Amino acid sequence: MKDFYSKVYEIVELIPYGRVTTYGAIAEALGARKSSRLVGIAMNLSHELVPNLPAHRVVNRNGVLTGKHHFIGANTMENLLSNEGIEIVDDVIKNFKLLFWNPREEL
DNA sequence: ACAGTGACTACAT
DNA sequence: AATGTAGCCACTG
User: Fold this and answer.
1) Which of the following CATH numbers is that of domain A4-98: 3.90.870.30, 1.10.10.10, 3.40.50.2000, 3.40.50.620?
2) What does the domain layout of chain A look like in residue ranges?
3) Does residue A24 lie within 7 Å of nucleic acid chain C, judged by its CB?
4) Quick check: A38 and A26 in contact, CB under 8 A?
5) Would you tell me the crossing angle of helices A36-49 and A4-14 to the nearest 10 degrees?
6) What is the distance in angstroms measured between the alpha-carbon CA of A39 and the sugar C1' of C9?
7) Is pTM, for the whole model, over 0.85?
8) Which nucleotides in chain B lie less than 7 Å from some protein C-beta?
């Protein structure tokens, strides 16, 4: 078993283009449903560790871009997502339920 | 070393 | 339906 963070990054890198997932889904896929916070922390640390990580494809369970302020610019996350064809309105992903990618189904 | 905090979520009031 | 509490654990002051 790898480190929790490593597994988180592994899954995030697997998120397909134009799809999104949630912190909780990742945590659950790792067998640690209650550790969803750690996933967010892992994302925060990923800046230095894995700069290429598509962290913009990870949102909270409501499809809200809670972490947008942690990106380089205020609109970076929105831009990256809309660039992949994902519609963002008021920091919320439109059709989130449709775009949701469940890591558990892929593992 | 200790306490506060945070890119979260589920469960209880 | 809306708030409050609990659990996770690494990082920072």
Assistant:
1) 1.10.10.10
2) 4-98
3) no
4) no
5) 80
6) 11
7) yes
8) 6-10
Closest-approach nucleotide to residue A33, Cα vs C1': B9
A59 three-state secondary structure? strand
Say how far apart CA A98 and CA A4 lie, in whole Å: 28
Query: At A59, phi and psi to the nearest 5?
Result: -130, 180
**CA A36/CA A91 separation, integer angstroms:** 20
Q: Please count the other Cβ atoms lying within 10 Å of the Cβ belonging to residue A37.
A: 11
Residue A33: CB less than 7 A from any atom in strand B: yes
The per-residue pLDDT string of chain A (107 residues; one tens digit each, 9 = 90 and over) reads 457 888 999 999 999 999 999 999 999 999 888 899 999 999 998 888 898 999 999 999 999 999 999 999 889 999 999 999 999 999 999 999 999 999 998 87
Q: Residue A104 CB closer than 7 angstroms to strand B?
A: no
